[in-house]
Amino acid sequence: MSDRVGVVGMGLMGSAFTHHLIQGGFKVQGFDIDEARGRQLHERGGTPVESPAAAAKGARWVVTSLPTSDIVREVVLGRGGIAEGAAPGLIVADASTSRPEDSEKLGAELAKRGIGFLDSAVSGTSAMAWKKDLIVIAGGTAEAFAACAPLFAGFARSAYHMGPAGSGAMTKLVINLILFGNRLALAEGLVFGQKAGLDAENLLKVVQDGACSSKTMIDKGPKMLRGDFTPEGHVKTSLKDGRLALEQGHRFGVPMPVASLWTQLQQAAYQQGLGDMDSSAFIEVLRVMGGLPKRA
Questions:
Q1: 7 by DSSP, 3-state: which?
Q2: Looking at domain 4-165, what is its CATH homologous superfamily?
Q3: In angstroms, what CA-CA distances link 97 with 45, 195, 209?
Q4: Helical ranges in the chain per DSSP H
Q5: Fold classification of 171-289 (topology level)
Q6: Domain boundaries, the chain
Q7: What is the signed CA dihedral for 43, 44, 45, 51, rounded to 10 degrees?
Q8: CB 248 within 8 A of CB 173
Q9: CA 262 from chain center: how many Å?
């Protein structure tokens, strides 16, 4: 069976996917609206193509890594979309952070066309993606999940089947919510400690080694401390994800105090011109509120 993979969306995450897949021996053909990303794919040994339909042609799987589920839908079903280039049996694995209901609907529509679908959200930053330190959380049929095992092993360290279509997207929002709380507490603690006169580098070492430690404190702590907001994700994307989480909380009648506060802070960071910086840049909002100088 073909080991050809189409990738649509080769930004921070998608470019890491293509790197690992090519290194793993897959034939990768990719599309992105930014032509520079196509050139980067060519330099890695992949084949840039002119449309999502071309990315799907002859492929066993197509991975989408895009900003929103509305864009995913257009890329899959729109003019020149994946469905136009797909042969029966193709599986679309959407690695975007999508709205769960949109994933359910898209999966049902593709099934009528003989195309498989998994909402295959990934957990981890782009820096973790380059280290192949991601997990995949997928929603869809057990058969489609089993068929994607070689694909997921190509760019992630593990994969979990969470249930029917939409379950992967929902699980990603739960993971994000818990991350929000971790990052918010870390930023608040660092600002508190610095304002109180503690040595910031030593403080970070302690919180990373203490009972409060988490992966996000190890990954994002140095960025927050040093004001290095080179993006591994973006404030604008984190703001979108926060709004998605709040939307689902409203849908199910769940209290979302952490998601609400996180989203407000990301909104403030976005309005202050930090939208294209790493999501950890929101610490600048707290620094200014606490009387410390803004660095970004």
A1: strand
A2: NAD(P)-binding Rossmann-like Domain (3.40.50.720)
A3: 27, 36, 31
A4: 12-23, 35-44, 52-56, 69-77, 82-85, 100-112, 126-130, 142-147, 149-155, 167-195, 200-209, 215-226, 235-252, 257-269, 283-289
A5: N-(1-d-carboxylethyl)-l-norvaline Dehydrogenase; domain 2 (1.10.1040)
A6: 4-165, 171-289
A7: -80
A8: yes
A9: 17
CA atoms within 13 Å, Cβ hemisphere of 187: 27
The pLDDT tens digits of the residues spanning 120-170 come to 999 999 999 999 999 999 999 999 999 999 999 999 999 999 999 999 999
Predicted confidence (pLDDT) per residue in 105-125, tens digit: 999 999 999 999 999 999 999
Q: Give the dihedral of Cα atoms 177, 179, 180, 185; nearest 10 deg.
A: 130
Place of tokens 């929603």: 139
> What DSSP designation does 162 have?
E
Of 176, 161, 165, the residue nearest 72 (C-alpha): 165
Alpha-carbon distance values, 182 to 19, 244, 257, 295 (Å): 30, 18, 14, 22
User: What are the structure tokens assigned to 78, written together?
Assistant: 């729109």
Under DSSP, the state recorded for 80 is: T
Which DSSP string corresponds to 246-281?
Answer: HHHHHHHT---HHHHHHHHHHHHHIIIIITTS-GGG
C-alpha–C-alpha distance, residues 120 and 170, integer Å: 11
DSSP code of residue 45: T
Smallest CA-to-CA distance from 164 within 183, 189, 184, 138 is with 138
